[in-house]
Amino acid sequence: PPGLALDQAVQVLIRPEAAVWPAGPAAVNRLAARVVAYSFRGRYQQVMLAVGEKALQFEFEQAMQLPPVGEMVQVGLAPAGIQLLAGE
Q1: What is the per-residue pLDDT across 32-85, written as a single tens digit (0 to 9) for each?
Q2: CA-to-CA distance for 67 and 56, rounded, in angstroms?
Q3: DSSP 8-state code for residue 12
């Protein structure tokens, strides 16, 4: 991104609705994650995923059939839902 050096440390901001599941072969920004928890929030469900030591929280439509807690999944991250900021 403009204003960032190639080797500069960044913070990655990911919008809760940026996750795409299931991540098909054409999915970009793919992550292997373990499903940790669900929380139902009316029209959407909040899902906590573990990617290595990091916990990420995403939102999926209520009607979407998601895998059980503990299962490994592949998710894609829509580029429009990712923002990089300078710093650690």
Answers
A1: 999 999 999 888 999 999 999 999 999 999 888 889 999 999 999 999 999 998
A2: 16
A3: E
pTM score: 0.83
Contact (CB, 8 A) for 84 and 11: yes
Q: Select from 25, 20, 1, 24 the least CA-distant residue to 11.
A: 1
Question: For the chain, what is the total number of helices (H) and then of strands (E)?
Answer: 0, 7
Q: Which CATH number does the domain housing residue 68 bear?
A: 2.40.50
* 81 belongs to a structural domain: no
Closest by CA position to 74, among listed 39, 31, 17, 35: 31
Residue 13, pLDDT > 70, answer yes
The two most distant CA atoms of the chain are separated, in Å, by 42
